[in-house]
Design brief:
The chain is of the alpha/beta class. It contains eleven helices and eight strands. The longest helix has 17 residues.
Length: about 280
């Protein structure tokens, strides 16, 4: 694979510091958004492959994640606020338009950014979005985490202490990403989950149906936390979408070649065959 340059940067939103990594160069921009509680590093392998195809890729730690600031006020966190942070990143970099890609809650953030600033979007890559069918599984999975962070913060701090004892260079990549996800501060963790739980999860179906840029939607067969039905529903709602079924929840993590090739080809196509002035929300 072609080697690409990598640089770390930072920007500020409401006096909070957010950190990002820049891969490659040029004016074909792509922004990749991580899932809930995960660091931007989860998208490092994909970012390198997309950048090697001649694009300029950014992975960003949203507020409360990775190496970005972690305020303890739940009002600082929401899908809408995360979408605003993505647009603020484009402003900081002086980017007019970009392809946005996100995983899980990160896919929802991309949808929110697309509704907030339709003129800034060149295309969307949306893996396992969290919509109607994922609400109950998500609550079941994350409510205990919220409860522990509130009533037993020492447990969260203990996991953080243990995760920091393991050198990331000595463990497999995805094991290291998992350790990074355990590096949480109890009050900030509770605030993040509280803000996301009790805020708007995604743009409405009506708003989603106005999206008119190319979209690649990836659903996972057999994923209990991210039902494939949500991805299929989103693909039907979007005006110019391609639906791809992953062979399982872990395919893009452990056997990424097939989906990497699809994603790289889609992103390159977004720039080789531009939207011809169409905007999200414009009539078709």
């Amino acid at each position: 694979m072609t080697l690409v340059s990598e640089r770390i940067g930072q920007f500020f939103v409401d006096d909070h510091r957010l950190e990002y990594t820049e891969f490659g160069s040029g004016d074909r921009w792509v922004v990749l958004v991580h899932g809930e509680l995960l660091p931007r590093r989860m998208h490092q392998p994909l970012a390198r492959k997309i950048a090697a195809a001649g694009t300029h890729v950014i992975t960003v730690d949203l507020l409360g994640h990775g190496r970005s600031d972690r305020p303890t006020d739940p009002r600082a966190y929401s899908i809408t606020a995360f979408g605003e942070q993505v647009i603020a990143l484009l402003d900081h970099l002086g980017v007019d338009r970009a392809v946005l890609g996100g995983t899980s809650v990160g896919a929802n953030v991309c949808l929110e950014a697309a509704v907030l600033a339709p003129e800034r979007i060149q295309g969307l890559v949306l893996e396992m979005p969290v919509l109607d069918n994922a609400v109950v599984p998500g609550l079941v999975a994350l409510t205990p985490v919220l409860g522990v962070s509130r009533v037993a913060p020492v447990a969260v701090s203990g996991l953080r202490w243990l995760s920091r004892r393991v050198p990331r260079g000595l463990v497999p990549f995805w094991f290291g990403v998992g350790l990074d996800a355990l590096d949480q501060r109890p009050a900030a963790l509770a605030a993040t989950l509280h803000g996301v739980f009790f805020g708007r999860l995604a743009p409405s179906s009506k708003q989603r149906s106005t999206i008119a840029v190319p979209a690649l939607v990836v659903g996972h067969a057999g994923d209990p936390l991210h039902p494939e039905a949500d991805a299929a529903m989103l693909a039907d709602e979007l005006g110019d979408s391609t639906f791809v079924r992953a062979r399982g929840p872990l395919e893009w993590r452990v056997r990424p070649t097939r989906l990497d090739e699809i994603a790289v080809g889609f992103v390159v196509g977004c720039w080789d065959q531009p939207v011809s002035g169409r905007l999200l929300g414009a009539s078709s």
